[in-house]
Design a protein that fits this description.
This protein is an alpha/beta fold. The protein is built from 10 helices and 6 strands. α9 links the parallel β4 and β5. α1 packs across α2. The longest helix is centred in the N-terminal third of the chain and has 18 residues.
């Protein structure tokens, strides 16, 4: 049997907010932060309404809704800004050391992402470590916080000595992992203010991840 750490990718390993800001700043200017906050709400809505919609279309529809709510007029085709710049998403500097240490300690690594195969491929190609498994929304036919990603991972990996989930998003990852009884490390990069009590360990970034995973697993 093996020991696994599963990760959300965007926000945890890749700088989703920084990448998103770079993509939409030419469209929103000084209102970029407001548009990003509106987008986050809109994306969750669209994913709930259309769980089988391809993620590229989710990105476009959510940005369209968010811009409309904020009174920002997108230029023709502007709703595709996020997918068009997806391959530029930065990887956090602490990813390589933390995941390398997990590998050295014998952990297998997987990503559970609300993303499609083609988009996640542009990100993992730039990761400083290799992953043993990817579970995407395209494979599962649903979007987190629905439980399909974790169920699919469980089906693919079978019996395990240990399984810890590590993620930044409390809403999309930590809360559903808690509902499923999966040990979880909350990498609270956003300082969101959500209830930390449902996480086994809380970190501000990945620098303490290897010890946190060992603690959660025990």
């Amino acid at each position: 049997m093996s020991r696994w750490v599963t990760f959300d990718c965007y926000g945890t390993l890749a700088d989703w907010r920084g990448g998103m800001a770079g993509a939409i700043r030419p469209l929103a200017g000084e209102r970029t932060e407001r548009l990003m906050d509106a987008y986050y709400v809109a994306e969750l809505e669209v994913e709930r309404e259309h769980p089988r919609m391809p993620y590229r279309e989710i990105l476009a529809e959510a940005l369209r809704r968010a811009a409309q709510r904020e009174g920002i007029a997108l230029p023709p085709g502007g709703e595709h800004a996020l997918s068009e710049h997806w391959a530029e998403m930065p990887i956090f500097d602490d990813v390589g050391p933390a995941l390398g240490a997990l590998r050295d300690a014998g952990w297998s690594l997987a990503i559970l992402t609300n993303c499609d195969e083609d988009l996640i491929a542009t990100t993992v190609a730039r990761m400083p470590v290799q992953f043993d498994l990817l579970v995407t929304a395209e494979q599962v036919g649903s979007y987190k916080p629905a439980h399909g990603h974790w169920q699919r991972f469980s089906e693919l990996t079978g019996e395990r000595d240990a399984w810890v989930h590590a993620a930044n998003s409390w809403v999309i990852d930590i809360r559903p992992a808690s509902e499923l009884g999966i040990p979880r490390v909350w990498v609270d990069r956003d300082r969101s203010g959500h209830d930390a009590a449902i996480a086994d360990v809380v970190l501000p970034d990945l620098r303490g991840l290897p010890d946190a995973v060992a603690t959660a697993a025990s």
